[in-house]
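Re-run requested by the PI after the first attempt was lost when the workstation crashed. Everything re-entered from the original request form. Ligand of interest: cytidine-5'-triphosphate.
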Amino acid sequence: MGMCWGNDRSVERDVGEKRVLLIVGGGVAAYKALLLTRLLRKAGVAVRPILTKAGAAFVTPLSLAALAEDKVYEDLFSLTDEHEMGHIELSRSADLVVVAPATADLIAKAAQGLAGDLASTTLLATDKPVLMAPAMNVRMWLHPATQRNIATLEADGVRFVGPEEGAMACGEFGPGRLAEPEAIFAAIMAALEGPAARPLEGKRALVTAGPTFEPIDPVRGITNRSSGKQGFAIAEALAKLGAEVTLIAGPVALPTPPGVRRIDVETARQMLAASQAALPADVGVFVAAVADWRVDEAFGSKLKKEKGGPPALTFVENPDILATLSASGPHRPRLVVGFAAETDHVEEHARAKLARKGCDWIIANDVTEPGVMGGGENAVLLVTKTGTERWDRAAKDRVAAQIAQRIAEALG
Ligand code: CTP
């Protein structure tokens, strides 16, 4: 326990501690509010929950209180006890008010300025920014009444995350699904941190990641070893700093980072086409382990063993995506970053690669270091036209955050 809120006069609040007032509305997706609460608490954000009557039909106050490590507020008229704070004070006791899930009913009440219960009263009385994560049936979402209410709230300065498109608990398909807890969490952190934490706001980034797969026949192919972890972490780190990120991913088993637009491809040629289609971009980060060769013509049907020994395959070179985009004239991203996986003479090879590919930076790693290939850590050299920096070995998401920060500085 030990959360320190504005009204808790016994304990001074940690100045750096951020606080969220979380209004949980009704709906099958309300369970995601529990996962969201966990993410926020893990990040050191205090969560004070308000549970609506409808919300309480889906999650229990006890679960919410345990995960939030705070009392759950449910009833407008129980806030009269002198030991309780009043609803006005409650509405202002956080840095941000979050509604997740925001039902059609809550949205309509907020848009109209109704204040018949604790949740709507809080939304009307608060002087803090409000972030809503809508969740409802697709018809309800698309209904002009809801769209009108959303437009009204947007004009009032309310921010929204989601809804996403997908299969719904009611069996229909379309927009209306509550955004994933990770996406709501990212939107909350962005709102809490303010513009200084988002130096890449308004900038477009293109990231390639993972291996490519070049088919030989419908069941066989050649590929490179790459988990995609470093590229995905960079896409996520750039998005966290506010960039609009397109992630072009070869076949990998990784979830899409929150707030990132992902395009899945298989071959080098598809990756090149998707990269070109993602232009213009302010920065291109080419992390993919692109297969250097493909068979000149993939077989349309499966090669059979019995047909007289192994087939003779002719290979042709794949396009170099990094070099092609580095040389794309007026469409060239302002900053082009390549990667190099080396086993020896790391700096020398990286510098040669920088010149050969025409990029601005090469981030080089020594793949003979244990735990780098497929592992969670990376030890890198940043090679630019003017110098070389050796970074300490760190977790791949730490390295990604450092790269994103440097990109933000370079783009000014
Ligand atoms: N790359 C690319 N398209 C290719 C090959 C590589 O975009 N067809 C990019 C990678 O994403 C990486 C960089 O180029 O950013 C370095 O790739 P790498 O395969 O390590 O270098 P090579 O050009 O193959 O050089 P070498 O074989 O000498 O190491």
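Saved to the shared folder this time. The chain has two domains: 19-193, 197-411.
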